[in-house]
Amino acid sequence: MIKPLSAAISAVLLASVMSPAFAQDAATTLDQVIVTGTRTPVAIDKVPGAVTLISPEQVQRTLNLTEDATAVLARMVPGYSESSQAMSNSGETLRGRVALRLFDGVPQGSPLREGSRNGTFTDMGVIGRIEVINGPSAAEGIGGAGGVINYLSKNPDVEGHETTISTRYSSQFKDDSAQSKIGVMHTYKGDAADFLVSGAYIDRGVAYDGDGRRVGLNTSGSLSDSYSKNLFLKGGYNFGEGQMQRIQASYSNFHIGGKHNYKPVEGCRFDPVECPVPSTNTAEKGSIAGSLSEFNDFEQFAVKYTNADFFGGDLSVDAYWADQAMRYVAENGADRQLVKPAPPEAERIWDQSEINSEKKGVRFGYAYGDLFKVEGLRLRAGLDLVEDTAEQRLALTNRLWVPPMKYTSVAPYAQLSWDIGPVTLDAGVRREDGELEIDSYTTVAFRDHTPVQGGKMDYKANMPNFGAIWRINDEWSVFASYSEGFGIANVGIPLRNIQANSPCKAVSCIADLQPLITENKEIGFNWRGAQGQVGASVYRSTSDFGSTMTIDKVTEDFILTRAPVEIEGFELNSAWTFNEHWKATFLYSRIRGQTQYYPGSGMKKEMGILDISPDKVNASVTWTPMDTLNATLGVSKTFSRDLRETFTNPANGDVYENEENTYGYALWDLSVNYDTGRYGQLSLGIENLFDKQYVLTWSQLPGWQNYFSGRGRMVSLSHTFKF
Known about the structure:
Elements: H1 20-24, E1 34-35, E2 42-43, E3 52-54, H2 56-65, H3 71-76, E4 100-103, E5 106-107, E6 127-133, E7 148-153, E8 160-171, E9 179-189, E10 193-203, E11 226-239, E12 245-258, E13 262-265, E14 282-285, E15 295-310, E16 313-327, E17 353-368, E18 377-394, E19 399-420, E20 423-438, E21 441-442, E22 451-452, E23 455-471, E24 476-488, H4 492-496, E25 515-528, E26 532-551, E27 558-577, E28 582-595, E29 605-606, E30 616-626, E31 629-638, E32 641-648, E33 655-662, E34 665-675, E35 681-687, E36 714-722
Parallel strand pairs: 4-7
Antiparallel strand pairs: 1-2, 3-6, 4-5, 6-7, 8-9, 8-36, 9-10, 10-11, 11-12, 12-15, 13-14, 15-16, 16-17, 17-18, 18-19, 19-20, 20-23, 21-22, 23-24, 24-25, 25-26, 26-27, 27-28, 28-29, 28-30, 30-31, 31-34, 32-33, 34-35, 35-36
């Protein structure tokens, strides 16, 4: 993953970046823990602030419970909101902002048209670890204003050939709730060459909630009643004197699609007259006439060259190409109709949104130590060349909804770090020099078939960062940092919402297309003792022209609001090893955000659930009675939140109301692993152990057909066999 330290610093300096396994292993020191989030590998204790590392063990524990790609983030990253449990990651934020998701450093989805589908892009069985930048990062250029999440694929770690066969069966003990998976991975590691080949297939049934009702089909895409198939190839060759050079290539082809056996049935929220007995959305057998299956298609190819002795430094060159397509569930809302106003309900047509994007880029990085013969002074510099294109269509009627957009960027950066005894100072800057080109187009009927003049917009910004870490002794360290991130605030939404009475009908004057520059300030500490570790930090993230999501009361769809945003938070992460048999983890996150009711009102409006997740606690206890057996009991607690505000404009007496109430809940899970030796490893996972009935937090806010309950108890049995 390519990032200068303009990446914002995560909530926990070192405690959060290490899995409990690191804390227990006395032979593992922090200067041996290497991260790639600084563009060239850097020891974690030299980074003033750090990325959060999710270890292979933590990934596997979550896989014992669920195949959801974002569930591990919700459990392991303090500032990450709850998982949507769907193909879509709507409502999932990192520290109150939308993060850029990467797979081996390649962006998934497009920030030009954020479709909330970029969380499901590969089989989690190929993921070795995950790096999370918990605040704004200019490192990747466009899209990193909310942080960066990089899923890193596995590498061969056993000399010679090794084959792994993984099978999984899950059920909620309903006739159509069964899920099954088979995956095969073969690796080879030789003196100079290595490769990995992986294939997987998953068949999913329908999910049920704690009351035994089918969970509704998410309008942005469900995991229920779906299948997925994945092919991943990676190979590398080391060469040159001392094998200091390496060439590596990888290919990923992932498809997840609905099986089209069920159709959505809308529930109703409580109303004393129209809905005295509320019910969440559900599903029934059948399909919407003429509709197509929803899907995610993600394909990418990447090549990487490294030279560890290039004029005395480390050189890396990456090139990538990615093609991504996302089709959504059929809807018959007013904004999908061929005419305006929409005809009577019985005559409404159904249509399906589809986002297509393509990206390609080349990235150069160079690191040089002891610059100017100054001990501990290190330079990291590089250049990124990126082209990102995206558009959105209504697939069934072949109508353009969001016009073709192309973003090109040339972005150099330079970063200096200086180790002065126990202190590391770090500072740098990235220059973003981009251009957004948008074709002329005409909006859909709901927006009055309004012609919009295309055009180009320049995006130029210098984004500095600086920070310091003081390793006080072997146990204590403190840090402080400042960083900036750059993004474009989901430009597809303001483009498709232009209508006849809009004051601007040309790309050149649409204010919502202006860049999103995010600033982050953070201080924190870490304590690491013989048996435990505790880390905590406070941060403040601001943007003068930020972005928030609200619900249009007419269409019940998302609309984008551009206004100043201030987000503050506190995070704590800890782990404790009582003895060789027992260990525990605990994390806590609290986030608050404010924006304006209208320009000039001041930061008076509390941000709601679409942006700011409620307070949360995640905890676990692991029992290891013997080397071949361990069990982990975990809990995820989301707290209630009550927003009740009334603001009066002193100039004209206009009254603004802001009311949003969400209730919290606790979900327990159990994971058990037993290594049989020659017959492989058996794993039992029970998600939602006590079969809790609840409504997903983001779904408690009224919106377009979004009243979804969460999954009830799911029991999974996995078997992994290596030879």
